[in-house]
Design brief:
Membrane topology: Multi-pass membrane protein
Order of helices and strands: EEHHHHHHHHHHHHHHHHHHH
CATH superfamily: Amino acid/polyamine transporter I
Structural class: mainly alpha
Number of domains: 1
CATH class: Mainly Alpha
GO molecular function: cadmium ion transmembrane transporter activity; manganese ion transmembrane transporter activity; metal ion binding; symporter activity
Low-confidence stretches: 1-9
Helix content: over 70%
Distance between the termini: 49 Å
Number of helices: 19
Shape: globular
CATH architecture: Up-down Bundle
Organism: Runella slithyformis (strain ATCC 29530 / DSM 19594 / LMG 11500 / NCIMB 11436 / LSU 4)
GO biological process, one term: iron ion transmembrane transport
Number of strands: 2
Keywords: Cell inner membrane, Cell membrane, Ion transport, Membrane, Symport, Transmembrane, Transmembrane helix, Transport
Length: 441
């Protein structure tokens, strides 16, 4: 077996995302901000998955039906995400492997194949949300039929290929720019919606009815699935290795520190955007008695008359399109990492991206043609529940690996961090088992 330089000797044929591995210079001297600047990027790319169109559907449904109550779910989900993404980046930095490669090395072949299939299902569900979200945005902005919009999204593959050839920093810059567009749009939306800030603050405190109310629990689990994305755990453990930090113990310690700051700050932006969507829905729809709005299209059409601003619906659709395009970039890259990591299989980038997109386009096109707007919105919410169910199969291996001292060395989880991680995993598993029982009985 070939060995890589890592905290310990880990078997690996080639580094994760080999075409970009250690391609971005890290400043070893200078101020904190100069060093930090080299690590800004991976966190933003991961944060994209926490504000993709799937989140919009669940956040709008939660805000319109239940007011500000589910804000606490978004907050808790983001705290979960911050910890899990920290574990993910730490695994990549400490071992030189991404999560998919680690699964291939640790588990028996049959188990690893099962985990690969589940990861591909999660990526397909995520890509489905991106396809539908972009198609809906194109329909709202330019009145393009949903079925045509779904087909147009295949062109994203060509754009991604073009920018990948320009370098990894270019992709990170595009992602950061699109996030800025989404952020500015929702700052405006929240300002003009005039939410009751005392109720917003109260919504950040968890309520017992979230568990006892079946409808609220279903949406809450959808929010969890839309917020903590399984493919992001694979993605982050790989793209953090694009930084050319010293592959020494001190170099890894510094890299984990700066990468965690980048990740946590970026997920803070994602929290604001998710919370803003729910606040907008609660302030605009719930308080006016429009509790039935659980549909992005309905939300778009009602924003202008209810808020009295002709820009509200336009900026809403612009933000949706930017979010969908952003998620396409990171979701496709995660697909590449998962296939290469689990199967040690290298496909041409265009082939891998086209396969991923076609898997999402077929069901999206079928629903768009046969069921129209209402069907696509229901499929959007359902895709997030699928993501939530798949989450356990990424979280549990991640915790197992980062607890392994023979793999992680001094960077293995402390007893406290390990305990908190397992509590989070248990909450995720219990909620998903409940969801399955409730769905099928």
């Amino acid at each position: 077996m070939k060995l890589i330089q890592s905290t310990v000797n880990m078997p690996l044929d080639r580094p994760s995302l080999s075409e970009a591995n250690a391609s971005i210079t890290v400043h070893k001297t200078g101020s904190f901000w100069k060093k930090m600047s080299a690590y800004v990027g991976p966190g933003l790319m991961v944060a994209v998955g926490y504000m993709d169109p799937g989140n919009w559907a669940t956040d709008i449904a939660g805000g319109a039906r239940f007011g500000y109550t589910l804000l606490s779910v978004i907050l808790i989900s983001n705290l979960f995400a911050m910890l899990l993404q920290h574990l993910s980046l730490k695994l990549g930095i400490a071992t030189g492997m991404d999560l998919a490669q680690a699964c291939r090395e640790y588990f028996p072949k049959k188990v690893a194949i099962c985990l690969w299939v589940l990861a591909e299902i999660a990526i397909a569900a995520c890509d489905l949300a991106e396809v539908l979200g972009s198609a809906i945005a194109l329909n709202l902005l330019f009145h393009i039929p949903l079925s045509v919009g779904v087909v147009i999204t295949t062109l994203d593959v060509l754009l991604i290929l073009y920018f990948q050839n320009k370098g990894f920093r270019i992709i990170e810059s595009i992602v950061g720019g699109l996030i800025a567009i989404v952020l500015m749009c929702f700052v405006y939306e929240v300002i003009v919606s005039h939410p009751e800030w005392s109720l917003v603050a109260g919504g950040l405190i968890p309520q017992k009815e979230i568990i006892t109310h079946p409808g609220m629990l279903y949406v809450a689990i959808g929010i969890l699935g839309a917020t903590v994305m399984p493919h992001n755990l694979y993605l982050h453990s790989s793209i953090i290795q694009t930084r050319a930090y010293d592959r020494t113990e001190e170099g890894r310690k510094s890299a984990i520190r700066y990468a965690t700051i980048d990740s946590t700050a970026s997920l803070g932006i994602a929290f604001f955007i998710n919370a803003a969507i729910l606040i907008l829905a609660a302030a605009t729809f719930h308080t006016t008695g429009n509790h039935q709005v659980a549909d992005i299209t309905d939300a778009h059409h009602l924003l202008d008359p209810l808020l009295g601003s002709r820009w509200a619906s336009v900026l809403f659709a612009v933000a949706l399109l930017a979010a969908g395009q952003n998620a396409t970039i990171t979701g496709t890259m995660a697909g590449q990492i998962v296939m290469e990591g689990f199967l040690n299989l290298r496909l041409k980038p265009w082939a891998r991206q086209l396969i991923t997109r076609l898997i999402a386009i077929v069901p999206a096109l079928f629903v768009a043609i046969n069921y129209g707007e209402h069907g696509t919105s229901e499929l959007l919410v359902f895709s997030q529940v699928i993501l939530s169910i798949q989450l356990s199969f990424a979280v549990i291996p991640l915790i197992v690996f980062t607890n392994k001292r023979d793999w992680m060395g001094r960077f293995a989880n402390s007893s406290l961090l390990s305990a908190i991680s397992w509590v989070i995993a248990a909450i995720i598993v219990v909620l998903n088992v409940y969801l399955l029982i409730d769905t099928f009985t």
